[in-house]
Amino acid sequence: MTDVVLAAGCVLWRRSGGLEICLVHRPKYDDWSHPKGKLKPGETPLACAVREVLEETGYVCLPGARLPTVRYFAQGRPKVVSYWEAEAVSGGFVPNSEVDRILWLPPAAARNRLTQPRDKTLIDALPHNLHHPT
């Protein structure tokens, strides 16, 4: 049995006129995805998700609703990624070795820009009130 890789991340969002989703570009894989990363020993999935958002985007976030868990194989090992929706509350992006660019896009454009189909379903799972604030 291969060890399962545990990871966590967020669908990071903000309001700038309308709802915008943050996507990260990872030069190592030349892909667009949601900020995420592996859990450190003893770290909870939610703590990991918040840490990864800060490390990859430079934004402090306020996590909200839990989103679907994504399961797939990466380098021959099963990977399980827990996700939350999270609002960007402060900070700013500075390029780094893991992430060289970010984009803030409306949900439909973000969905189209994502590299992996499995990541697109997370935008579809955002709570309805994010798309249509009351």
Description:
This protein is of the alpha+beta class and 134 residues long. It has one domain: Nucleoside Triphosphate Pyrophosphohydrolase, CATH 3.90.79.10. It contains four helices and seven strands; from the N terminus they run E-E-E-E-H-E-E-E-H-H-H. The chain has helices spanning 45-57, 107-113, 117-124, 128-131; strands at 5-16, 18-26, 31-33, 36-38, 59-74, 77-91, 101-105. Strands 1, 2, 3, 4, 5, 6 and 7 form a seven-stranded mixed sheet that branches. Helix 2 (107-113) packs antiparallel against helix 3. It is globular, with a radius of gyration of 14 Å. The mean pLDDT is 94.
CATH architecture: Alpha-Beta Complex
The CATH topology label is Nucleoside Triphosphate Pyrophosphohydrolase
Gyration radius over CA: 14 Å
Euclidean distance between termini CA atoms: 48 Å
Along the chain, the helix and strand elements come as: EEEEHEEEHHH
Helical coverage, percent range: 10-25%
Record the SSE blueprint.
Elements: E1 5-16, E2 18-26, E3 31-33, E4 36-38, H1 45-57, E5 59-74, E6 77-91, E7 101-105, H2 107-113, H3 117-124, H4 128-131
Parallel strand pairs: 1-6
Antiparallel strand pairs: 1-2, 1-4, 2-3, 2-7, 5-6
Helix pairs in contact: 2-3
Q: Which terms would index this structure?
A:
globular, 7 strands, alpha+beta, 4 helices, seven-stranded mixed beta sheet, Nucleoside Triphosphate Pyrophosphohydrolase, 134 residues
